[in-house]
Amino acid sequence: AMAVLLKDAMQPNLVQTLENNPAFVHGGPFANIAHGCNSVIATKTALKLGDYVVTEAGFGADLGAEKFFDIKCRKAGLKPAAAVIVATVRAMKMNGGVKKEDLGSENVEAVKKGCANLGRHIENVKQFGVPAVVAINHFVSDTDSEIQAMKEFVASLGSEAILCKHWANGSAGIEDLAHKVVELAESGASQFSPLYPDDMRLFEKMNTVVKRIYRGSEAIADKSVRDQLSAWEAAGYGNLPV
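and the corresponding structure tokens:
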């Protein structure tokens, strides 16, 4: 009975947005428990039907984007043309030390301080050879000065931040971002490459992610973990991503 109920689950679900744009919803587990993006079937089907395909890689770029690039794109032979990093003024202020109850008040210095976190995400995406644009998801409490501080910081890293008001204005509020993504995609600037090669030892793959994405000094694992990794390599799984 369960097999009968699930027999169509392997097929992507075609849905539409409020403005009648098509979207596939299929196999999108959160990045904190799995790979954090939709299925290869959904993406490859969309590529056959549309000029541009957008895939959401959930959570921060250090988690969702890394897994999307290193796992899904590697194994599916996908080469992303551009990346969009979604950020908010409120998040910058929280990263800058502002308490949640005070996020609605202007604090340009906290925005500037918190932008260091955003900068790391931009750097991480660019490590994969993919050009990035920042989408500032607008909140009504955001001030012009705070938004300008974010834009100036992103510009200092050689990227562009675009204010997006799709929550309030629908697609009309995000047209500038769409045009920028198309510009990046058509520029041919992307030189996508995974973070590590397939033939690297499993522990070294982990170490590479720790050092290059999270900026840790090294990955630490006791003998039981290293023995398990070695056993997987001996069983022929050493070429898989981590």
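(Above: one complete record from the training split.) The chain has three domains: 1-78, 80-194, 202-237.
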